[in-house]
What does this fold into?
Amino acid sequence: MAIDTVMWSKLVTGMTLAFHVIFATLGVGVPLMIAIAEFIGIRKKDPHYTLMAKRWTRGFIISVAVGVVTGTAISLQLALVWPNFMKMAGNVIALPLFLEVFAFFFEAIFLGIYLYTWDRFKNPYIHWLLTIPIVIGACMSAVFITTVNGFMNQPGGFVMEAGQFTAVDPVQAMMNTATFSKVFHVLSSAYLTGAALLAAIAAFTMLRKGVSAYHKKALNLMMVLVLVFGLLNTLAGDVSAKFLAEHQPEKLAAAEWHFETEKGADLILMGWLNAQHEIIGALHLPKVLSFLAFGDFNAEVIGLEEFPKDEWPPLLVHYLFDLMAGVGFALLVIALLYFLFVFWKKRNELNKWMLRLIALCAPLAFLGVELGWFYAEIGRQPWIIRGYMRVEEAATTSPSIRILFFVFLLLYIVLGTMCVVVLRRLFNNNPPEVEMEKWMKEKRNQSIEKGESTR
Amino acid sequence: MSYELIGISVLWLFLYGYLIVASIDFGAGFFAFYARWTKQDHLINRLISRYLSPVWEITNVFFVFFYIGIVGFFPDTAYYYGNALIVPGSIAVILLAIRGSFYAFENYGSKKNIVFLFLYGATGLLIPASLSVALTLSEGGFIVKQGETVSLDYWALFTNPLSWSIVGLAIVSVLFISSSFLAFYASRAEDHAALKLIRGYALFWSTPTIIIALTAFIYLGQHNERHFQNMMDLWWLLALSVAFFMIAMWLLYNGRRYGLAFICVMLQFFTAFFAYGIGQYPYILDPYITVQSSATSPAMGMALVVVFIGGLCMLIPSLLLVFKLFLFDADYVKGKK
It folds into this structure.
């Protein structure tokens, strides 16, 4: 099969986003965890939590670096790979892009200060206060950039005149109908993923090196957050499905393989399609799709038949959607199971199988994020701006894009590998117990010095 | 003043800001590598990393800020430059990616590695070289529009002395700006050994800066008569630039008032950069894009200006805090904190 420049453009952008979203999700999710750990550490006067915040920050900064550079890459690729899109949509989406940079600027400034001022303030709360602009900056940059994605799905805030967007109202474009559900889902899943990753690291370490007080505390704290954000994320998923049913029915219909408009529609899980678009081997849950889409078992759900066939999203998205939802539920179930063990005293919540399940949460959470974004992007096809501009109209015509695909692929392989190598080196030979001892010793020496100087 | 004029002025100011902070960063990377290579790293590398560690991300954001701003205010630039710059732009992206991440790997990772430092130092010179291509292109004659396709005439670009002199100017300026800043930082830290070494770098790179600047100016005259004449009309700005350069040189040579010397270097580039920018006005890309023809709608323009002012109200205090903590806190600079 010959691949044309449009396909290469899709591949380059898809690859960059798939790589970037790992680090972007961490960038949004982890600061909140750091802030919570540092706060508890000060509040309870428990150095374990403070050490958690310190260690997480040290790992976090590495992932931020990769996130920053891949973020720069994707922002430039918007113009380099999709020049026609930027020319047309730039008039409308410049505002959120600009705001995103500001939010990130804010975050970057305070992250720099936070990193290098651990022992510079007498009152530990002042240092903790620095986490607030970081958490807010990270959260707001996710919000702003998600409004852009919302705009691509639900364009609004302009009048179309002679192939140009005129009478632009940038604020209205940001507050499009897709924004709320998307922002909610992106934030809840990012916090869920951050907590799941840190819980999984604690579980994984305890599996290999035995139970320790530090990791036990980290695990417990993070599992609370996995549960909280797992619940919120499920709610966000539900809100998103209801939004799609109302405003973008073809995207939901493609994800559910729902071809004919009907009342009391079944929910179809997995299965496959034959040449006549008949569904084989799937699990049917009667009337559940209607319930999920409208909160009413007999509501009418619009099917794909109502759309011209060349505007159908690829039917493959069904699997992306089902797997994403499956991952979301799996995380929630694992968290519930953990707390069942915690409260049911006879059972040890740190048993091997439980820890293994929790360790599995990290890859699952990232898989869920990837599947969700692939569903969001592929489900919008063939449009880049739904109803106004098709993907092939937006792409560059330069044939160099093919070579660039491989160059960027190489770059991401190198960055990804180096990131893992550096992180392993940073933590493998430096377990928290050793670091704790060193830190306490330093503290003692300092207080002795101070004692001498006042004498 | 119309919003598109405010927009371009602000963006130009930001690009100037990027020029300064990025030059310090890029040059410092090169010097760090060079010092390791010549086994003098014990003198200056701690000093360099004390300055760079808290600020490198901020530098990167300056660039994205300028880029998003220009695409936002003038969407046509995305179309022309995007189409024409797909290859050089991607190279710059890759270099920036290598640089940023390897800086973090080297600095926050536990083990020091000369390969990381080499990549970091080498990209510090290659990035300004590749970014400066955009300035060359804006002079016109390299981006060709035939029908609906926009492309870059690589042969014309690579055989033109103007593009090479601008590349040379970018590299040399980076080294000069960076060494004069680091001299100031070393003098604040009262690190005499480092100061001696860095002051030598600054003096060494000063003369080539002014020579290549003049060369580029002459080639500009041959390539784009209009731009050259406009700049000649702003002769007083250029004269000021030379005057600031002389003061900076005199201070560096006599080894005193390094802070003032660095301010003079900043002013030297400020006046030259604005003479260049005002001379190019109203074109963003000669002859296809002008400030007026490509401006976004007034509603968006106003929204961007409002956001910009609001954003500055948040950013300036935060930046001052950074400066206070890391640049003007004598104990931090000396490594006591």
